[in-house]
Design brief:
Low-confidence stretches: 726-735, 880-886, 1138-1143
Shape: elongated
Oligomer: single chain
Number of strands: 99
Strand content: over 45%
Largest sheet: 11 strands, antiparallel
Mean pLDDT: 84
Helix content: under 10%
Number of domains: 7
Number of helices: 4
Structural class: mainly beta
Length: 1248
């Protein structure tokens, strides 16, 4: 409370002090425990103590007392001389001195004395033991001497006041490491060393004192420190906790207590001065110890170890396989040429084997020595064959040579304005073939002749043309590059000087539009405690692709097209790219991303395939068309297959040996599948009129189950299952079949009344079934008022697949019984009646069911390098019908005009089959007519007529009219009955593209003729082909034409191209002296094909018999440049000629081997004795990869070994050869043990 006074007495004993502090402290001293917040004042201070403590000559134990001459307190200030003589100090403690001399006093203190009374006193640590405030004195005498030598001595007293001992600190040093921080990277690297991974360390600073209590604090370091580029500031300077912060975040914390125990904790990384080295940053934290009177400063040295980012060497692999591209079947020429001044002086010529115009010449030469101007186009023969040649996507390739003839022609003669270069070819890419067809309009500029050579040049302009095709999901662009000039550049316009011929090559290219192989990823990095800053990349330039990368470490490498196409199998190129991971401290770790690019083999492909078995119990097939391999197929190398699983309902064998899982075979191996059972129809009920329900099966609980358990039959009325007629002791109705026993029905058949219905369900899938319906009374007669019909609906998996209605069969002897067939896969069929009239009912007499029986096995394809395909499945589709429907056939006759009949197409008469004057042939689009010298195609054109004789009388027929392009064409048809009399005609005018032609409602006919003429009787120049599709015979059955097996007789030489499809085909060129001429290209597809040639196969002719066991019989020679490839299968070359005349003709096998490939059998068995000289290399050239050749012949034929000693007989016993009749001996070449020949026993062997 106010008004109170008090006195505070403070005693320090003998110790002195010169300052005192007072502090106000809240303190509760009453019973209410409330705080005392009163103020107080100091009104007076009184002190006392030893006088010596207050003299002018006093100093602390560690101080220096300095008295200057000018001071009033110097030694001489209070001294005097009676005579006022001058005097000064000459002696200290009786010892003579000089001015400024330092003297060690008896106490050990130092005295530096001046003769004029000034001095400096240094306790010299003599009194360090004094406690704070303790007082002592030190004395010395000094003698003064005046100018006359008179002296006097006095004593000087120095008061020393103790301060106590100052604390003594021993410095400390510790190490912390960023490697122990979150995300820190622990390693053993360091510069100079790596001592620890710890982020927190404790220790004790050594502090000694004289026993007084100490206060110890920390002082902020003087070094500049930063973290992530931000300068660290310090909080808590001169306290016991010192914290370094960057942007308010604690980075390092140091604490200490009064005993000197400290802790250093690194919380965040700090920036180090040296990059890319795990260096050390040193901080010195001050330590201050204060004992109340004295303080001392020491230090704690903290070494902060750096951490470094890490990276790893990365290797990425890319496998690339170039697209295998083959261009073949090239045809090029001119069409649709437009001329000024008419065409009277225009000449055209086809100079190669295709049907196109290759040479155009125009105009009347202005000078007798000049020729006509013109264009000449020569196809690149590398691409015109069926095999063609390989190209790549990196280079352009030549399609044709184009020559421009620029001669002076008369101005009023024919002059070219423009023409169209048309080209077609097949491009096979990785085994898949697409047709490339394009037309390019060529603009021609005919310039007037003048004295200016440049102005007189004619100009040809070729526009650009691109075509894009998709193959196996990848897009390719076919690009017409243009003319290649003398500099190797592609140009679209060329100039030809007057009176000159200018030849340019026309080039094209094929490039892939789809994404090239690439690899992408992120580099492997760890930035450590400092944190990630960036990735720096070295040069990304390289010859193999495009590398893109960013500062986040992401990269993407895309192989370029050149690398993709150029790497050969097994070839590897490697490109490395350097990257550096940089952390936020600037440290970096460098490594590489390496891209290894390897040329690989494309794995083979195995396809899921179906084999139709029809009614036979076995089927034999090869896997040739089931497997493919890009590389092996291009080299005609056999692909192998391995069996992965076996069929369940049959057995696979090869050469009579059962096939086992894991067995491997060549793709051409003959595999036989033999079914176990289920290959015949199942008849339920009876086709007789005396059937009973017991012939169907057994009725249990209202449901009829067939005896074999494969079908259940249920009768319904109003949606409820009811009984059959048999449950009413009426086992049949009119002795015929199944009906419904229902109270509402008018009898025990199937009525509309009460919605009666019969449902038949099958346990397995039915591929087709014939049903016989009985008791189809008068209500079911066509045209009856009741219009009753038996209605049926077939289902598969609950979905309707087929339906129909049945009426009386009024055109046979049993009108009330009729049959129908369900031609679909189904598992349930329902029967109802359409008509509410009484007695509009029927029953089901029988069903003849063809259960669908399928079997399958799995396999994989293996290429020559051992690469395997995915697993594929071969399914055996077994059609179990008991009767074989023979497909329809026809005979084809060809004529020029309508001379094959009396009358004409407008007013037809009767057929005259003896007037055949042209040859009908089968081409890819259908039946056509062999072109003669005046025609350019094998289609029906220029008033030609094709007559087809059908295998039976028909009521209707369907034909496809096919053309090569969308050009406009016209034609007509005449139908003839089986007597050859015309019954109807029809036309198709100005048709564009293919046409499906159905001819019906004209009565019965057996012949039909097609010709090419317009409605006004003019010839139609656009050829078309006729593809017979199907007909309906007089019994109402639909029959498909068999276009797979054809026999065609060629009149005279074969000059055209012939392509047949699948099936067994025969081509006869058997007129006396008839050849397959050099312009012909003959290709037969799968099947056992026969080609009979009465005379020669001329040079440049190309014959390919495809797969199957094929035979070529040649009565003459296979001339130079001819090419015969007999393809896959067991193929026979039958020879009846030799180089020498007369008997014992000698066959030059080397000459044949140079022209013929893939022969398995040489047939010498004819009426001419022939001799064959043997050389093992000929066998290799003639045969496929097996190098085995079989000779069959008679006892007049000879195999001559006289020129070769490198053969040996492989055993004396005779052997059998699969698929060939007779006994054979085997001879093996000693020069090449893989080569063998098998010679029939009847043939003579000479000089062996």
């Amino acid at each position: 409370d106010s008004g109170h006074e008090g006195v505070i007495s403070i005693s320090t004993g003998d110790k002195v002090f010169n300052s005192i502090s007072f502090e106000a402290v809240e303190y509760a001293s009453d019973s209410t425990s409330t705080n005392d917040s009163s103020d107080y004042y100091i009104t007076a201070i009184e002190g006392n103590g030893p006088a010596s403590a207050n003299t002018q000559y006093q100093v602390t134990e560690d101080g220096i007392l300095t008295i200057e001459t000018s001071s009033v307190f110097d030694l001489l200030d209070n001294d005097s001389d009676a005579q006022n003589d001058s005097f000064n100090i000459t002696h200290i403690n009786g010892t003579n001195i000089t001015d400024g001399q330092e003297i060690i006093l008896d106490s050990g203190a130092k005295l530096t004395i001046g003769v004029n009374g000034n001095f400096e006193y240094d306790p010299n640590s003599v009194y360090d033991a004094l406690e704070a405030g303790e007082v002592t004195t030190d004395t010395y005498t000094y003698t003064i001497t005046d100018e006359h030598g008179a002296t006097d001595t006095a004593t000087a007293t120095i008061t020393i006041i103790g301060k106590g001992e100052a604390p003594v600190i021993t410095d400390s040093e510790v190490v912390v490491s960023e490697e122990g921080l979150t995300n820190g990277i622990v390693d053993t690297d360091g510069s100079p060393t790596d001592e620890t991974n710890a982020t927190s360390v404790s220790g004790v600073v050594g502090i000694t004192d004289d026993g007084n209590s100490l206060s110890v604090t920390l002082l902020a370091p003087s070094e500049t420190l930063s973290s992530d580029g931000v300068t660290i500031t310090w909080a808590g300077n001169d306290t016991q906790e010192l914290v370094g912060q960057a942007n308010g975040v604690d980075v390092i914390r140091v604490t200490i207590n009064d005993a000197g125990a400290y802790n250093v904790e690194l919380l965040k990384p700090v920036d180090h001065p040296t990059n890319s080295v795990e260096d050390i940053f040193t901080l010195n934290f001050g330590v201050k110890a204060d004992d109340g009177s004295e303080s001392t400063t020491g230090k704690i040295t903290v070494n902060i170890e750096d951490d470094m980012p890490t990276s790893s060497a990365i290797t990425r692999e890319l496998d690339v396989g170039p697209s295998l591209i083959v261009v073949k079947n090239l045809e090029a020429g001119f069409k649709d040429s437009v001329f000024d001044n008419g065409t009277s002086t225009v000449n055209t010529e086809n100079t190669d084997s295709d049907s196109l115009t290759d040479k155009i010449e125009w105009g009347t030469a202005a000078n007798n020595s000049d020729g006509q101007s013109g264009y000449n186009l020569i196809d690149n023969s590398n691409f015109t064959s069926t095999d063609g040649s390989e190209v790549n996507t990196t280079d352009a390739f030549k399609l044709a040579d184009f020559t421009h003839q620029n001669w002076a022609i008369n101005s009023n003669s024919s002059t070219l304005d423009k023409t169209t270069i048309t080209m077609s070819m097949d491009v096979e890419i990785n085994g898949e073939t697409v047709a490339i067809d394009f037309d390019v309009l060529v603009e021609h500029t005919e310039t007037p002749n003048s004295g200016d050579a440049n102005a007189s040049r004619d100009i040809v302009t070729l526009p650009a043309g691109d075509i894009t095709k998709e193959i196996n999901g990848q897009e390719y662009t076919f690009k017409l590059e243009g003319f290649k000039d003398a500099n190797g550049d592609f140009v679209k316009t060329i100039y030809t000087n007057e009176s000159a011929n200018n030849t340019y090559e026309i080039f094209a290219s094929i490039e892939s539009n789809s994404d090239l192989p690439h690899v992408e990823g992120v580099v492997t990095l760890d930035a450590g405690a400092d944190g990630f800053d960036r990735v720096d990349w070295g040069s990304l330039d390289n010859p193999y692709g495009t590398m893109t990368a960013n500062a986040n470490g992401e990269y993407n490498f895309v192989v370029n097209q050149g690398t993709y196409d150029s790497l050969t199998l097994g070839e590897t190129v490697t490109q490395s790219f350097t990257y550096t991971v940089v952390d936020k401290d600037g440290d970096g770790s460098t490594n590489t991303v390496s891209i290894e690019i390897t040329g690989t083999n494309t794995p083979p492909e195995a396809l899921d395939r179906h084999i139709d078995m029809d009614t036979a119990t076995e089927v034999t097939f090869t896997m040739t068309n089931f497997v493919s391999d890009v590389e092996d197929d291009s080299n005609s190398t056999i692909v192998k297959i391995r069996i992965e699983s076996l069929p369940e309902d049959g057995v696979l064998t090869v050469n009579g040996t059962p096939v086992a899982i894991g067995d491997e075979y060549d793709e051409i191996a003959q595999i036989k599948y033999t079914a176990n059972e289920n290959l015949s129809d199942t008849l339920y009920g009876t086709t007789e009129d005396t059937g009973t329900l017991t012939q169907w099966g057994t009725i249990t609980n209202g449901e009829l189950t067939t005896d074999d358990g494969k079908a259940t039959i249920t009768a319904f009325a109003d949606g409820q299952a009811v009984g059959f007629a048999s449950e009413n002791d009426n086992n049949n109705h009119d002795g015929l079949g199944i009906g419904v026993d229902s109270d509402a029905g008018d009898d025990d058949q199937i009525d509309k009344t009460n919605d009666e219905k019969i449902v038949i369900s099958f346990a397995s899938l039915v591929s087709n079934a014939e049903f016989g319906l009985a008791s189809l009374g008068g209500h079911f007669t066509p045209g009856a008022t009741e219009n009753a019909q038996a209605h049926w609906v077939a289902y598969k998996d609950g979905i309707e697949v087929s339906s129909g209605d049945v009426k009386q069969s009024t055109d046979d002897s049993n009108a009330t019984t009729n049959t129908f067939t369900v031609e679909a896969d189904f598992d349930r069929i329902e029967f109802t009646t359409v008509s509410d009239a009484t007695n509009s009912n029927y029953s089901i007499q029988y069903m003849n069911v063809d259960y669908k029986v399928d079997d399958s096995f799995d396999y994989i394809a293996i290429d020559s390098l051992g690469l395997e395909s995915e697993v594929a499945t071969v399914t055996i589709d077994m059609d179990t019908v008991t009767s074989i429907e023979v497909a329809a056939t026809y005979e084809a006759f060809a004529y020029n005009g309508d001379n094959f009949m009396s009358g004409n197409f407008n007013n037809p008469g009767s057929i005259n089959l003896n007037s055949v004057n042209e040859t009908a042939i089968t081409a890819e689009l259908g039946v056509g007519i062999q072109n003669n010298q005046n025609e350019s195609e094998t289609g029906i054109d220029d008033n030609e007529t094709l007559l087809l004789k059908l295998s039976e009388d028909v009521s209707s027929a369907t034909f496809n009219i096919n053309v090569n392009s969308n050009d406009v064409y016209s034609g007509g048809w005449v139908a003839f009955d089986n007597n050859g009399d015309a019954i109807s005609t029809g036309r198709f005018n100005d048709q564009v593209g293919n046409l499906s032609l159905s001819i019906s409602d004209i009565g019965s006919f057996s012949y039909i003729a097609f010709d090419a003429h317009t409605s006004n009787g003019n010839a139609s120049d656009i050829g078309f082909y006729v593809e017979p599709v199907s007909y309906v015979n007089l019994d109402g059955k639909s029959v498909e034409f068999d276009n797979s097996t054809e026999a065609m007789d060629i009149v005279g030489d074969l000059r055209t191209d012939i392509t047949t499809g699948f099936g067994d085909d025969t081509i006869n060129v058997m007129d006396s002296g008839s050849d397959i001429e050099s312009s012909a290209q003959v290709a037969t597809g799968a099947g056992d094909d026969v080609i009979n040639v009465e005379d020669d196969i001329d040079g440049s002719a190309n014959v390919n018999t495809g797969s199957g066991d094929d035979t070529i019989k040649v009565g003459g020679k296979i001339e130079d440049s001819a090419s015969v490839d007999m393809g896959e299968g067991q193929d026979t070359l039958a020879l009846t000629y030799g180089d020498d005349s007369g008997e014992d003709d000698t066959i030059d096998l080397t000459q044949i081997a140079n022209r013929v490939d893939n022969v398995e059998i040489i047939d010498l068995d004819n009426n001419v004795d022939q001799k064959v000289a043997i050389d093992w290399q000929d066998i290799v050239d003639l045969t496929d990869g097996d190098n085995d050749l079989v000779f069959v012949g008679n006892d007049g034929d000879v195999i001559d070994f006289s020129d070769n000693s490198d053969w040996q007989l492989n055993g004396n016993e005779t052997k059998k050869v699969d698929g060939v009749d007779g006994d054979f001996k085997e001879y093996v070449s000693t020069s090449n043990s893989s080569v063998s020949i098998f010679i029939e026993d009847d043939i003579d062997v000479e000089d062996f």
